[in-house]
């Protein structure tokens, strides 16, 4: 799960940097990179949710 969190953190920082660049400077290429990063984040976040629920359920038992 540590690896997953590292991947999410890296992609999130990339997304935030590129989204801010698009917003502040009107950089269209940065907007494209931000949208691409958001698409890559979605399955990672779903995987995190699944693993997190499994861990919570294992502790409850």
Automatic annotation (TrEMBL):
Signal peptide: none annotated. It comes from the Bacteria. One of its GO terms (molecular function) is structural constituent of chromatin. Might have a role analogous to that of eukaryotic histone proteins. Belongs to the histone H1/H5 family. HCT subfamily. This is Histone H1.
